[in-house]
Design brief:
The protein is mainly alpha-helical. The protein has two domains: 1-61, Helix Hairpins, CATH 1.10.287; 62-101, Ribosomal Protein S14/S29 (30s Ribosomal Protein S14, Chain N). It contains three helices and two strands, in the order ααββα. It has a two-stranded antiparallel ribbon. β1 (73-74) and β2 form a beta hairpin. The model has no long low-confidence stretch (mean pLDDT 94).
């Protein structure tokens, strides 16, 4: 089980990323628009730099919903390989059967 503080920190980052997503996208569109004057694009870049770093989507870490483990994460199932194996062996994940011979 991951530390609760790490999981909560990641949840706060996800919440901030959702909150600032539209504003960041608008500023990035201004920055990437080559038709605008360079001064306006530079001002938009400074505004983007002033925003909180944890508001960026790429700062959010994929974590297992069951254990909070940050590595070996299956996106389709939203869980780590260890939790998947455990729940699959117990028959709690539909469509997954642990093979034995």
């Amino acid at each position: 089980m991951a530390k609760k503080s790490a999981v909560e920190k990641n949840n706060r980052r996800a919440k901030l990323a959702d909150q600032y997503a539209a504003k960041r996208a608008a500023l990035k569109a201004i920055i990437m628009n080559k038709a605008l004057p360079i001064e306006e694009r530079f001002k938009a870049q400074l505004k983007l730099a002033e925003m909180p770093r944890n508001g960026a989507k790429n700062r959010v870490r994929n974590r297992c919903e069951v254990t909070g483990r940050p590595r070996a994460f299956y996106r389709k199932l939203q869980m780590s390989r260890i939790a998947l194996r455990e729940l699959g062996s117990q028959g709690r994940v539909p469509g997954i059967v642990k093979s034995s011979w």
